[in-house]
Amino acid sequence: MDASTRSVLPLLLASALGAISTAQERPVAAWVDSHDVKTAPEPTRAPDLVTDRGPRQAGSPDAAPARPPKAIDPDAPIGGLRGIDHSRTYFDAPGDGSLWVRGANYKTSFDQAGATYFPLFGSRQEKHYPHALSPDRVTIGGVPVAFERAPAAAHSGERVELDRGPFVEAYDFQPGSIEQTFVFPSLPGAGELVVHIPLASELSASECVEGFEFQGALGKVTYGRATAIDAAGRRFAAPTSLGSDGITIRVGAEFLAAAEMPLVIDPVVSTFGIDTTSFDN
């Protein structure tokens, strides 16, 4: 070993010892866990459209792609049931002589008993609360008017008619209500005209501004006060009262003496539900 090598060797040895000392003093990094390569990682949850920054704006880089509006299909399954388009009414004749009408929150049957109204209050309703809508008594000047008790229902468009003989009992349907009318082409006598409807119901009955309410825990049915209208368009607010055995509509003798036929008596029936859940059977 010559003199130059002997002079460089101590410097190399000191440098190596210094590197070893520095490595021993440096802290060891913590072990980082990784997922088991044999098990698929949990799926990542898609971020909500609304975050702390507010709703995403259309056209922003992270905005969700726009979807076309979905058309309403009455036959599409919803929750295991067939969907119902509540913006229209449905009519069905099951073949037993009856006719059924389905609105947004009611259904109505027409059979030998006449018209019967069934309010639909929502998914928590456990049974039906039927209301008879057809009259059981009609008098004029205190004399009973004989009429057909079991006429066949005639359906045309959104209207159903029961031809009672001296008058026609008609119903015009909308998704949320029914307009009931009694049409008299002529009157078989003179005096006050009285129409009695046996609105028997398990719901609690009371008077309200619109007419009468039949209230339950899940909703109510309203029966509006009647108006009499003659062929000339003259109107008469027919006194409408609620008794223990039903509703009575009275058209005064003075109005009838000057009225032009036909005469129309016109109350409205509606359902208002408290249960607004979307499930519908």
What does this structure look like?
The structure is a single chain. The protein is mainly β. It has a domain at 89-273: Beta-galactosidase, Chain A, domain 5, CATH 2.70.98.50. It is 10% helix and 37% strand. It is built from 2 helices and 25 strands. Strands 12, 13, 14, 15, 17, 18, 19, 20, 21, 24 and 25 form an 11-stranded antiparallel β-sheet that branches. Strand 5 and strand 6 form a beta hairpin. It is globular. The relative contact order is 0.13.
Shape: globular
Q: Give the SSE order as H and E letters.
A: HEEEEEEEEEEEEEEEEEEEEEEEHEE
CATH H-tier superfamily of the domain at 89-273: putative glycoside hydrolase family protein from bacillus halodurans
Per CATH, the class of the domain at 89-273 reads Mainly Beta
Mean pLDDT, to the nearest integer, reads: 77
Radius of gyration: 39 Å
Terminus-to-terminus distance: 103 Å
Query: Strand-residue fraction?
Result: 35-45%
CATH architecture of the domain at 89-273: Distorted Sandwich
CATH topology of the domain at 89-273: Beta-galactosidase, Chain A, domain 5
Strands, total number: 25
Largest sheet features: 11 strands, antiparallel
